[in-house]
Amino acid sequence: MKTAFKPAKDTARKDISSRNSTNSDGSAHTERFSGKYSGAFTLAEVLITLGIIGIVAAMTLPTLIKNNQRKETEARLQKAYSTISQAFLSAQAKHGEAKYWPEWDDAETILTKYIAPEIKGAKVFPTNTSIANLMCYEGKFHSGVGVNDEATQYIWMDKVYLSTPFLKNNTASIKLMDGTCIGLNKASEKYSKQMFIDTNGSYRAPNMAGKDLFFFVVEDNNIKPRGYDWTVSDLFNPETGNSCHGKALHGGLVCAAKIMGDGWTIKYW
Hints:
alpha+beta
C-alpha cells in the first residue's frame, strides 16, 4: 500500500503570525511577524549596566558616608553638651556656685564629687599619668596618626600630636553610657577649668580635634566653647592658629564654637 506523502512540518511557521489589513487603494495586505520575542539582556548589556552602577556608587558612597558621620557627630556633641550642662546646673543647685568649689585644682575630685553623681551610669577615670592615657583610658586607644600609637591619644587637624592643653598629671575624665568621654583639667591660670568632649570615645577614630574632640572652658558658672570670644571670621581663618580650618596651624581648638554658632551644624567638613 502506498503511503500518502505528508510534507515535513515547517516548525518555523509555528512562530509566524500574520495580520491582514487593507491598503489605502483597497488592496489586501498581509503583514507577517514573529510570535517569539525575548526580553532578556545579553551578557554584555548586564556587564555595562553593572559597570555604570559601580561608577555611580564609587562617586556617591564617600559623600554619603561623610554626611552620615557629620550628622552623627552633630547629634552626639549636642547631646553630650546638654548632658554635662544639666549635670553642672544640678550640682550647683546642691553645692552652690561652681566658681566657689574649692577643689578646682583637682579635676578628679570635681568629677567624682560634683559631676558624676548627676549623670546616670557615668564612670570616673582617674587623673592621667601621661599624654598617652589622657581620657577614659582602658589599656588602648586609636591614634589618628596611625603610627606610634602610644605617643598620644589625640591629634590636631593638621595631624600633629596634641599635647597642650593636655598635660601630664592634670586631666581626669568620665565616660558616659553611650561611650562619650568628657575630660576636665587646669591647663593655665587663664584657662583654669578646661573641659573636653570626645564624642565617640578613645577607641574610635579619628581622635582628632574638630572631628570628634571638642574643647570647652568653665567660666562664670557656665560651660562655654573655646573660641566663644573669637570673631566669626577668625573661627574659620586658615591663617589663624587653632582655628577650625583644616589648613590652620594646629587647627580644631575652636570648632565647638563654630558648630554652635552655625546652629549645631558642621559646615567645615
